[in-house]
């Protein structure tokens, strides 16, 4: 069993795994590697570095990721709906509404990129700044 940190495939130090069962059927859905504290901290550090890299990109570059996510979710919506039903025990109608909500939000933020004028509104921390 493998996991990824910073785009690199790693073999976990801990041989144990975490199991996810369907609340509907009780069937085993997935088995995940159980990371050590050190591996979890490395993943957190890697995520912080990725955040810095993302902040350095232009809004147009970041928007291209939203467009890619939007297209992938639309293409794979049936698979995602099935995952939501199996993992959460939700009815299919709720799973469809959840996927529709994600698609709608992505579409909104894809369009929002054109409205950015470069004014930075400071937040209470460096990570909570807004560019309008």
Give the helices and strands as they follow along the chain.
EEEEHHHHEE
Name the beta content range. Answer: 15-25%
Radius of gyration: 19 Å
Q: Provide the low-confidence segments as ranges.
A: none
**Global structural class:** alpha+beta
Explain this structure.
Helix 2 packs antiparallel against helix 4. It contains 4 helices and 6 strands; from the N terminus they run E-E-E-E-H-H-H-H-E-E. The strands form 3 sheets. Strands 1-2 form a two-stranded antiparallel ribbon. A two-stranded antiparallel sheet has the order 3-4. It has helices at 37-56, 59-75, 77-88, 92-112, and strands spanning 3-5, 8-10, 17-21, 28-33, 120-121, 130-131. It is flat, with a radius of gyration of 19 Å. It has 2 domains: 1-56, no CATH class; 57-132. The chain has 132 residues and is an alpha+beta fold. The N and C termini lie far apart (44 Å).
Please describe the topology of this protein.
Layout: E1 3-5, E2 8-10, E3 17-21, E4 28-33, H1 37-56, H2 59-75, H3 77-88, H4 92-112, E5 120-121, E6 130-131
Antiparallel strand pairs: 1-2, 3-4, 5-6
Helix pairs in contact: 2-4, 3-4
Question: Top keywords for this entry?
Answer:
132 residues, two-stranded antiparallel ribbon, 4 helices, Ald_DH_N, Ald_DH/histidinol_DH, oxidoreductase activity, Aldehyde dehydrogenase domain protein, Aldehyde_DH_dom
């Amino acid at each position: 069993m493998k996991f990824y940190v910073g785009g690199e495939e790693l073999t976990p130090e801990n041989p144990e795994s975490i199991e996810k069962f369907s609340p509907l059927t009780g069937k085993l859905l997935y088995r995940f590697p159980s990371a050590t504290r050190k591996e979890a901290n490395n993943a957190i550090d890697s995520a912080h570095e990725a955040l810095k890299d993302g902040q350095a990109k232009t809004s147009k570059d970041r928007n291209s990721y939203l467009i890619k996510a939007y297209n992938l979710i639309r293409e794979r919506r049936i698979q995602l709906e099935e995952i939501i039903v199996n993992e959460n025990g939700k009815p299919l109608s709720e799973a469809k509404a959840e996927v529709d909500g994600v698609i709608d939000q992505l579409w909104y933020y894809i369009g929002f990129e054109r409205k950015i004028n470069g004014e930075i509104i400071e937040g209470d921390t460096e990570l909570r700044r807004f560019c309008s």
